[in-house]
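Dear colleagues,

As part of the handover before I leave the project, I'm documenting each prediction I ran so the next person doesn't have to rerun anything. This entry is a single chain, and its sequence is reproduced below.
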Amino acid sequence: MTALAVHHLTVEYRRHGGGRLRAVDDLSFELEPGETLALVGESGSGKSTVVRALSRFVKPQQGRIELDGGRNPHEYRRRLQLVFQDPFASLNPMHTVRHHVARPLKRHRRAQGRQDLETRILDLLTSVNLTPADEVARKYPHELSGGQRQRVAIARALATEPRVLLADEPVSMLDVSIRLEILNLLDRLKRERDLALLYVTHDLATARHFAKDIMVLYRGEVVERGPSDAVILDPAHPYTRILADAAPDPQARRGAPTTASRALPRPAERREASLDTGCKFRARCPFAMAKCAEHPPALPVGGDPRHTARCWLLAPE
């Protein structure tokens, strides 16, 4: 059964001075148990707004979100958990690690009695490689490194026995040396607990290696989606090509041009516009044409129905 299904999600914010900004535009996708879906895009593309809407921090103007097929909506907050981007701000400095992990266990009645509570706390800390667990449980956040704090945050999220885990840029504020450890940890926990994982990032390299499928978001709209290798190695939308071209590439250091750099010259300057109709990327696209004033459909790439892109360059005509 699909763990999470999102149908036509639309989120708008009020602009200062009047008007509304559409941060997420008609977004639909599904999350399957035991799989990772990556949501990628540059800053301001709407990634965090998607997470906030799924976490019920903001109310969407349109759309429907179904967890476990819509069964038992009262369990939504227990079954969907979030790992925040900033491990320094997501933990209360006044409380110990034990308090942070125990609170969701108590709130959602995941433990029966004091002894069971203590056992579950230590088991959760051990599962995220925080050992010896009893010593770590007594510490305060300021006594931990950034990577250890993020492990505590992951343990706290797992305490409610969720079905879906939203990881919003979970390693962007950590040292480069420990980012891979945290991503490997999330990948292992996903497989062991059969979690559906939404991995939100601007890093295409990690998205390719840790996600089965990728959705590329631009100004609140998915412009390309498909299997990770197909999207990253053979990007079809000009925006995805720019993102791929900006990603570090070992070949580039040896002087070999990347696929993206051969296919798409980078625009001389970044131009943003308020585009109410048509392709939202056309103000920045070197291939923009009159047809782009019409909103492009999701067209298959190379005949693959799983790999689609919203770009008129793919249309047969």
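The two ends are 39 Å apart (CA to CA). The first strand starts at residue 4 and ends at 14.

All the best with the project,
I.
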